[in-house]
Amino acid sequence: MNRIKLLIFLLLSTVVTHAQVNTDSLRAVINSGRPYEEKVNAAINLVKSFELKNFDSAIIEGDKALQMARKNTDSTSVAELKRTIGVANYFKGNYDVAAKNYYESIAILEGKKDKKRLAPVYNDLAKLYRKTKDLDRSIENYNKASAIYTELKDTSGISMILNESGVVYEYREDYKEAINRYTASMKLAEAAGDSLSVSYSLSNIAGVYVIEKKYELAEANLLRALYIRQELKDSFAMALTFSDLGVAMNAKGDYPKAIKYLTLSNRVAERLKYPELQSNNYTELAAVAQKQGDFQKAFEFFTKRTALRDSLYDLEKTRQTKEMEAKYESAKKEQQIEAQKSRLRLQTFLFIGIGGLILLSLLFANSQYKRYRLKKETQLQAEIMKQQEMAAKAVMEAEENERERIAKDLHDGVGQMMSAAKMNLSAFESEIHLTSDEQKKSLEKIIQLVDESCKEVRTVSHIMMPNALLKNNLSVAINDFVNKLSQKNLRVQVSTEGLDERLDSTIETVLYRVIQECVHNAIKHAGATTLDISLIRDRDGISGTIEDNGKGFDIADKDKYEGIGLKNIITRIGYLKGTVDFDSAPGRGTLIALHVPV
After folding, report:
1. Among residues 50, 95, 302, 305, which one has the fewest Cβ atoms lying within 10 Å of its Cβ?
2. Which residues have C-beta within 8 Å of that of residue 253, sequence separation ≥ 6?
3. Domain for residue 446, yes or no?
4. How many domains does the chain have?
5. Cβ(396)–Cβ(572) below 8 Å
6. Helix 55-71 and helix 36-49: axis angle, to 10°?
7. pLDDT, mean of residues 199-228
8. Does the CA dihedral 159-162-165-170 come out positive or negative?
9. Would you say 30 and 249 are in contact if contact means Cβ atoms under 8 Å apart?
């Protein structure tokens, strides 16, 4: 019973009843275009759906999910997946791999102080040390898990640790303390209505009764645990109970029942690909056959058990198998046949291995070629993008130069000519004698129109080549531009933050032109009465919004984006590797949101 008790308690912290999961639907979510959070949750649930059903599948799907989580720098999901992969390797007997995954999970969760996820991993690690008979380290990790569950007031977790740690006291032959822990765990589980945990406590108590040769009490507890597990339809836990009953019945001397229960347990273990449980059951079946005097059957069970154990670890049963060979001469021929089959299998595996190496070499060569081709394509694409950026920059510089030329021509040519015309008219007004008030008013209107034209030319030239942007920062330039607008029916509100320091001249120029374009669109096309401009600089770059209350437009209409105005905005922001979004609808104004990295 001690041997099978070791197996049972190995499973206590990880046996969790999962709802039936539709693996196809989970894979559909993983392979879809849904947000990362939904995809990684589906991947974790898929791994957990195999956790106690198919350990190989759990490891394979876990590795795939790890790649997704690492790609998205999701350390919490990495820790959770590491724990699940560790559990699968633990059941397969890969204890070094399981320990490595547990410690990696613990390191992440301790750094994040995620106590809720950390406690179960401590429990898993304690269970592994208990398996390898390092009882002091096992208790140390159980105590860490218990302290967290106590802090979180998690009675279910406390109950689990009481059950788990009770096994260590069994190993130390302190049966009284073991019974006390199992009983305390059962009381907590009963109070919480956790029938599965109650069944584990019953199994544990029954194990101690078997050690103490109180077989009736042991059988009663195990049958009660089996009933609970049948009600829960927990086939995995039922397999453990069948194995327990087989051990108890063997110790009691009821061999038919022992064979029946051990055989039932092995059926589930084989389906789960859980060699540890099968190995323990074969050991017990061999002992039953030997007690019945059926040495040939006993030898067969020992042979099966040894074949399983050889894949996990070497135990002293190898020596026992050799002793059985001496007793049963009739089995030698069968062993020789089996050896020949093994050699044939080895040859087959060798040929398969050579073929696999050749295939891997071809795949590697193909992969290297694809990487080389991809590298060249990437370089070509980078060069194309560089040329496009240079072309865009040249176009924008040419545009700015042309604006500067036109602005100077307006200011120095047309502006001075209009000023001279105004001066001549003023001089003419003082030299002639007007005969009527009507003529005087007409002349005054002409002088006023010329004066307003001078101001308009000056304003246009300053907008095209703003001196404020040359002398001051972007915030001052935008406010200066807004203040010079002659639209009396348009209220403009400007808000800037973090723009006191000068930026790269190209960035300032592009953003200034974009603001200009947005304001002109609001005046010319939107018929807006209010316009709110906001620019904020932070660590990520510059974010801005331009919102008006004009007539708006249909953003689904692709023709709207073919116009020079919107196309200029998109092109300029794209040149700075920024983004621009439009939110508008007929009758509710327009919101333009942009972001430029700095």
Report:
1. 95
2. 291
3. no
4. 2
5. yes
6. 160
7. 88
8. negative
9. no
